[in-house]
Design a protein that fits this description.
The protein is mostly helical. The chain is built from 16 helices and no strands. It starts with a helix and ends in a 20-residue tail after the last helix.
Length: about 280
């Protein structure tokens, strides 16, 4: 039997070796270290070839926020480039940061190559750039290019992080042509909506699928449950659906929502904002 495109892509991505992907360190920790680091100390270890110091100098020059003790707050991309260019062959962090500079300079082709190279090494912050529709515009991709490339990066990012937010993006791909694959969508909706970290946008979208009967069997009770979990964000859709339901169906949908919240210790009263990415960085 012919495998679906979703299955083929997933099998390919799942065989990527991510065992050596280093644990990420929140960039805020790096910035805290920079606040207590005199410039001359960091400059000296940078000149001695210490990679982490070179990244700190570059980041400080890029952000122009006086992170390093006793330094001015002016943005200086040339200084940042000085350190990053020497590291691009060995550091995905450097390639990502240099890619961000190239975006600011309007050099989108080079930016895309640098950030994509960093993402290929399973560098989580680079993957965040590559799955963001806005950031993909910044690296010069049109809508068609985004559609053909983003799914690959989303699958790779999920294999690395098992993030429900990323599973939501993948599920959305598989309910939309040319990637429409309802069997795959069902798999990814399950990953996006399970547990206390379930993505609220995925719950809303899954509710729509149950309401319309598109990629899910039409089921008003399940649709109502998902809308109820969406809180105020989907209140109008829930009320509109209720007009088509019996009181018994509404009660059942509400009960299922309550049971889900109890089981997952995730209470959705007024829960109207989607989960945000927990972006981690690591200097390597």
């Amino acid at each position: 039997m012919r495998k679906s495109m979703a299955t083929v892509i997933f099998l390919l991505i799942s065989h990527i070796n991510i065992a050596n992907a280093e644990l990420s360190e929140d960039i805020s920790n790096i910035r805290i270290e920079m606040l207590s680091s005199p410039y001359e100390t960091i400059k000296k270890c940078s000149e001695a070839g210490e990679k982490s110091c070179q990244i700190k100098l570059a980041l400080n020059s890029m952000e122009g926020n006086s992170r390093l003790k006793d330094r001015s707050g002016e943005i200086d991309y040339k200084k940042a480039e000085h350190w990053l260019i020497t590291l691009t062959g060995q550091s995905p962090t450097a390639r990502l940061l240099l890619g961000r500079i190239r975006i600011q300079q309007g050099k989108t082709k080079e930016a895309k190559a640098l950030i994509s190279s960093s993402g290929t090494e399973n560098f989580s912050p680079a993957l965040d750039h590559l799955i963001s529709p806005i950031d993909r515009i910044y690296i010069g991709e049109d809508k068609e290019q985004q559609e053909t490339q983003s799914l690959k990066w989303e699958l790779k990012a999920f294999m690395l992080r098992k993030d429900p937010d990323i599973a939501y993006y993948i599920a959305a791909h598989f309910i939309t042509p040319p990637y429409k694959d309802c069997a795959a969508a069902k798999l990814w909706f399950a990953r996006a909506t399970e547990g206390h970290n379930a993505n609220i946008n995925a719950q809303q979208l899954l509710g729509e699928q149950y309401e319309t009967g598109d990629c899910m069997p039409q089921d008003y009770v399940m649709a109502y449950m998902m809308y109820d979990l969406g809180g105020t964000a989907v209140a109008e859709q829930k009320h509109a659906l209720a007009e088509k339901m019996t009181p018994e169906q509404i009660n059942e949908g509400t009960l299922r929502s309550y049971q889900w919240q109890e089981q997952n210790h995730s209470y959705r009263v007024g829960y109207g904002v989607g989960n945000s990415y927990d972006i981690h960085w690591n200097i390597h």
